[in-house]
Each structure stands twice: as structure tokens, then as C-alpha cells.
Amino acid sequence: MISLAGRDILHGWGKYVFTGMGLGLLIGVTLSMAGIYRGMVDDAAVLLDNSGADLWVVQQDTLGPYAEPSSLYDDLYRGILTLPGVAQAANVTYLTMQVRPAGDAARERRAMVVGVVPGGFGEPGQPRFLVAGRRLTRGHYEAVADLSTGFRLGEQVRIRRHLYRVVGLTRRNVSSGGDPMVFIPLKDAQEAQFLKDNDAIIQQRHRTAVNPLFNRPGQPEVLEAVLAAQTQSTSVNAVLVRLDAGADPDRVAADIRRWKRLGVYTRAEMNEILQAKLIATSARQIFMFLVILSLVSAAIVAFIIYTLTLGKIREIAILKLIGTRNRTIAAMILQQAIGLGLIGFVVGKTAATFWAPVFPKYVLLLPSDAARGLLVVVLICALASLFAIRTALRVDPAEAIGG
Amino acid sequence: MLFPTPNRRALALLSILLPLVLAAVWLALTSGPLAPVPVTVAVVEERAIAPALFGIGTIEARYRYRIGPTVAGRVRRVEVQVGDRVHAGQLLGEMDPVDLDERVAAQDAALRRAEAGVAAARAQVTDARARLEFAGAQVRRYEQLLQARTASEDTVEARRQEAQVAEAGLATALANLESAEQDLLRVRAEREALARQRGNLRLLAPVDGLVVARDAEPGSTVVAGQAVVELVDPATLWIDARFDQLGSGGLRAGLEARIALRSRPSETLAGSVLRVEPQADAVTEELRAKIAFARLPEPLPRLGELAEVTLALASQPPAPALPNAALQWRDGQLGVWRLVDAGPRFAAIETGLRDLDGWVQIGAGLTGGDRVVLYSQAPLRPGRSVKIVEAIPGVLR
User: Fold this and answer.
1) For residue A95, how many other CB atoms are within 10 A of its CB?
2) Higher local confidence (pLDDT), B316 or A241
């Protein structure tokens, strides 16, 4: 027995393949939309992964540091370090702002500036891996930037009033909004964010010392008292805590919450904050669009298959006339429909993979999404062919002879 | 179902579908989770690490002279401007003397009067002395007359008494002279004291220096001890530098320093650590040190200017070392991804000294010649297939 479907396809293969390719581009757009949604969710997940933290300690009653502003004194980490179960604790600041290379304002980028304690290797908050250069070693004026900022090694970038030399590059270190990260030493970041850095403290001391109101001749103790009153700790946005192996995050979090009276989030809670609160609306927006696009694609697939079948209604009538069984005719239409879906899927997947890196924000094409997509495409094609089969089987064999 | 007999049409269809399928398979293998991660390789090498410290500070003057009056008063004039170079003893300004000049004039008059008094007393002494001589001569003459019996005893006695009176008169005159002379000394000393006070109102430079501040203008009133003019000795400029306490164990006096001023970032100046302050800053978690210039740059750095200081610590003997980018944290352990035949394997290591260029000495866990992952395009997992490349794709040079 010969394959009726194959023969029919070969008869008009050009039309068939190009229809499949057109369908494929549509499927590619749908897959890309799924990839954009996944990329958004992944941006949030990768933010947590890259921070390398088990617990986020933030200002009480805030959802910091990503979803809400949070401000903590920068010496709190010392107290947190003493708690049982805590292996490492590191101060960190986050500030999303415009960063531009020195002398080239046209390449300005929106970036999340992360202040980390320099000198360590992979402590919480630090980039997990680099793709070029080295980690921060100096306490000031160095930066490690994400590749997607477009900054080059050795280039100087301006953040507020200081120039920073890019000494290292990393990859996929982005904020939950997809902005690339730029890591700079903590003290510089504090200056950029709070303008209450060490320089400011020392300058404030000078300022007070030259003020004759405070620095009274013959009364040196006035100045000392005023300076002591001005000395206050600087702030950070969060303390990232890494736990000892085997420590229970919830128990340590409860300890910090109870005894330090600070806000604490475990990884699961932070994930919930990012996914359910921070990116929820925009993710749902994309998801809604994905659903509509899928429905439209399904409808178009159904129409195409239906019109393809209607196009050869005369041939089907002849087949019925020569006594072909209904089952054979139905199988032919079903096979053609599924074949069309497969071609479309392969073209779509390939196209999506090719154009995904061109998108300005991350597009994550998951293999599971692809498998799910394949299943849905085949199902839709099968469903769509049902209508076509119904029409084909109802055709009057007399039509074959122009009746 | 049989595959259709190959003919021209089938071949044409295949020639389109097959590349499509191949492209899809190729993409799945190169860009999906099955694709090998591009990595670059670093080889552990014996390397002498020259650790260094990096700090920032401001230019300060070691000696700062705040010149002002010792008593409250009004500024009469200020002779110098900020930026002037002055030499030791130069007049910087003067306080208003109020009535001091008049009091000096009065003292001058008193002095002249005292001098006249002394002259009068001297004349009195001469007069008394002349009277005494005359009286003595009269006594001698009348004594001779008494021997010749031409004068009475009574007359001689009278002459003797006159001589005694003259003697007493001389003593009085001499005492007067002494008194007048002492009075002159007193008045002269008082005049001197007033002149000193007058001189004290003149503000003089104690050393050769540079005027950095002019805090009071003529006419303003200042209290005792308040500065009118501030001087620094420009030869004694130093940097008050701060170093993060983290890793600053090697900070000590005498270390070579490279200094970059914020106004001239590309220029490197030489210097050395003069001293490390015994007191660290508890709030900012920094150590403080004073850095002296080997040779003062021209033009002089401005006081308060920001300076970056890099200190070279003593070079250490060679030991296995790696760039710090290779070090990663995994499951609570610091380590590197060793490249073995089966793929990358995480190996815990201990680190030793590190320098500012990003090299870290490896204390234990690796030996020279071991190959480890330096950069990777994505986080690694044990057994994840990797592809060794020269540079990670996408890195701009």
C-alpha cells in the first residue's frame, strides 16, 4: 500500500512546505513569547542565585532589598555573624541608575549598581563567575560589569562623581527588571547611594572643626562633643547571610527576626516576593499575550488545514468514487495536518533559537516548553483536521464528475 | 505505511526538510542545556606575589600655624593674601593699638622728665660738693688763724659746723641723684614694656611658609587665640591616608608608596609611609597612615586634595598562584573547577597571599601545572560538558 498522504504532498510539495514554514514563523513567535515570559521569571531567579545568599536581612517591615527600599546600619552584620548557624554575612547595596563610560555618554546604560565588600571570592553578593578580567581587589574605584552593559575591560565608567575602572566582566548578572549589574566596592556604593560615606564623615568633621560656633577658643570639649554626636553608622540595603551546611534557614531567620528585630527572608520567601509581587503584573501581561497568541495560532492552523482540505475536495470525491475507504481518507488528512505541524514546529523552534539572542532582554527557551509546544501543536493539528475530515467524509462522490 | 518511492519530487522535499531538521538538531546541541559551556583555562603557575595595599587620603600639612593676637582686639590691617609666600619674621598684619601709641608718647614725656630730674639732681650734687669744699677750706683757714690767735674758738667752731652742714647737703644731693636715676630706670622700663605691648600687636610669621587662610579682615574684632592668618610650611605636606582594615596587616612605616592625585590621575608620584597611626577609625573600619612625598611635586598639590595611595608590600617567595577569577564558592567551600578528563570537578583549596592585580597564592589543594577553569560562560556543575576556548564569546576587547 502506498502512502496516500505522501503522494498528495509530493504532488504539491512547494505549497505544502511553504505553508508549513509560514506556520512555523507563527509558532516561532509564540515560542519566543513563551521565552520572554520564562526569561522574565529567570531574571528574578538568577538574581537570587547570583546573590548566593540563604537569607536576606533587611529593614523591619520592608520587602527589601529588591522590591522595596531598605536601609540598615552597616555594622549590624557583626551581630548577625555571631548567631549560630550563620557562616557568612556580607553587607550589600543595590541602586538602579544610569551608568556611562567616561567620555562616551552615548553608550549610557541603565544598570543596577551593587556595592559589595571587595577582596573576597564568592562571598554573598559577589558575582559567581567571571567571563573576563578579575575580581575586585582594591577598596575603591574598581568595577565588575555584566557583559550586556557593553562596557569593555579597562574602560572607565562614571557613577555619580567618581570614575571606576572596569576590571572584570561577568554574564547573566541582572536585576529582576533585567538591568545588567555593575559591581563596585561597598564604600563607593554607599557614597553613591547615601552620600554618607567615609569621605563625607571626615569632611563633616572638618566642617564642624572650622565652624567657630562649635570650635570655641578655650573650649575644645565642645568640638569633641559635637563630633561624637555627628558620628553615626552608614547604611546598607541588606545583609546577605550564608548558612552553615545543615543549618535550618527558617530557624535562623526566626532567631534574627526575634532577637535582632530585623526583617528576614529565606530563599523561598524571597522568590515569592520577586515572582508574586515584583514582576507579577508584567509577567501576567506577557502571559496573557502568550495565551492569546497561542489561541490565534491554533485558529490559524485549523483554518490552514481546513482550506488545504477544501482545496482538494474534488480529488477526495474521486477517491470516494473509486471506493477508497473513509479510514484511508481520514488518515491522509490527519497525516498531512500533523506533518504540517511538525514542519512548522521545527521551523519555529529554529527561528526562535536564532532570534532569541537579538532581544534586548533575556529570552529563555526551555526544552520543556519546546516539548510542551510540540505536544500542543500536534494536538491542535489533530483537532483541526477533525473538521477537515468531517467535511471530506461528507462530500458527495458525484462531485467528482462535476455533478 | 511505506516510504514513497524516491523520485525527483521526494528528493526536492527532502533537500528542504533535511537541512531544517539538521539545523534544529544542531541548535539543540549547541544552545540548549545540552550544549557544552565555553570555558577558558588557567594553569597553576609558580609565581612571586607582590601584595599591595590600596588606600585613599587627602593632602594635609604637617605643621599649620594659626597666627592671631594674644589679647582680644580689632584687626587694623592684614598685609598678606592667601597664596603668598612669606619668610620668617615677616609682618603679616597688625592689631589696632587703640590708645597704646598715646600711652607710649606719655611715657616718652615721663622719660624726658625723669632724665631732667636726674640732671637737676646731678647739678645739686655739684652744688653741694662745691659748698662742702668751700666749707672745708674755711675750716682749715680758721684753724690756722686760731693757731695764730687771730680768730676765736667760737668762730672756728661755727666754720666746722658749716662744713658738717655742707657734708650733709652733699649726701642729700647724692641721695636725690640716686632717686632720680632709679626713677629714670623705672620710667624707661615702663616705656619698654609699652613698646613690647605695641610690638605684640604686630603679627609676624614664625617660619618661612605659605599663607593658606586669611580668617579676619581689617576692622573685625577677634578674641585672644583666634587666628587672623593661617600659614603652612609647604615643605612638610603629607597625605593622611586611610586603608581598609581588611587585609591591611602588612601596613607599616617605611613602605614604598605610589601616589596618584585626583587632579593628575595619570601621573604617579613616589613616597613612603611615614607612620601608621596607633589609633584606627572604629566607625569606618579603616586604618590611618601618613604618607610623605619623596619629592614634592610642582605645582604643589592642594591641601585637602584627594589622593590614591598604593603601597607595595615585600615580595614573597614564589608559590603556586592563580588569577582570582578562577576561585568560586560552592557548597560552603572555596575552590576551583579542575579540568580532568571526565570534565570539570570542583576542588576545595586554601588561599594565601593576594595582590592587587588579582593573583592569589594557593595554599593547599593544587600544584603547579594543574589546569583549572578561569572563565566560564555559565555556572558549572560537576560533569557538565565544557568546550575550551580562547576567550568567552561576546567579550569585547
Assistant:
1) 21
2) A241
- How far are the Cα atoms of A194, A281, A339, B120, B250 from residue B241, in angstroms, in the given order? 22, 50, 74, 73, 15
Q: Per-domain residue ranges for chain A?
A: 4-44+281-401, 60-197+234-261
Q: From A161, which residue of chain B is nearest by alpha-carbon distance?
A: B262
Length of chain A: 403
As a whole number, mean pLDDT of residues B303-320 equals 85
B244 close to A (CB below 8 A) = yes
- Cell of residue B360, nine digits: 592569589
Please report the pLDDT score of residue B1 as a whole number.
Answer: 43
On whether the CB atoms of residues B232 and B114 are closer than 8 A, the answer is: no
Please state which architecture CATH assigns to domain B52-61+233-312: Beta Barrel (2.40)
Residue among A87, A133, A234 whose CB faces B325 most closely: A133
Architecture in CATH for domain B67-98+202-231:
Beta Barrel (2.40)
Which run of H or E residues covers position B259? strand B256-261
Q: How far is the first Cα of chain B from the last one, in angstroms, to the nearest whole number?
A: 57
Q: Cβ contact (<8 Å) for B378 and A130?
A: no
**Per-residue confidence (pLDDT) for residue B180, from 0 to 100:** 92
The domain B34-50+317-388: what is its CATH number? 2.40.420.20
Position B397 scores a pLDDT of 64
Q: A306 Cβ partners below 8 Å, 6+ apart? A: A384, A387, A388, A391
Residues of A in contact with B379 (CB under 8 A): 49, 128-129
Report yes or no for ipTM above 0.85. Answer: no
Residue A177 C-alpha cell reads as 527588571
Residues A174 and A133 sit within 8 Å (Cβ to Cβ) = no
Q: Determine the distance in angstroms separating the CA of A392 from the nearest CA of chain B, rounded to an integer.
A: 22
Q: What's A260's DSSP letter?
A: I
Residue B168 burial (CB count, 10 A): 12
Helix extents (H) in A52-65: none
**Are the beta carbons of A348 and A396 closer than 8 angstroms?**
no
DSSP string, B75-108: EEEE---TT-EE-TT-EEEEE--TTHHHHHHHHH
In Å, how far is B122's CA from the nearest CA of chain A?
A: 53
Q: Note whether A132 contacts B224, CB cutoff 8 Å.
A: no
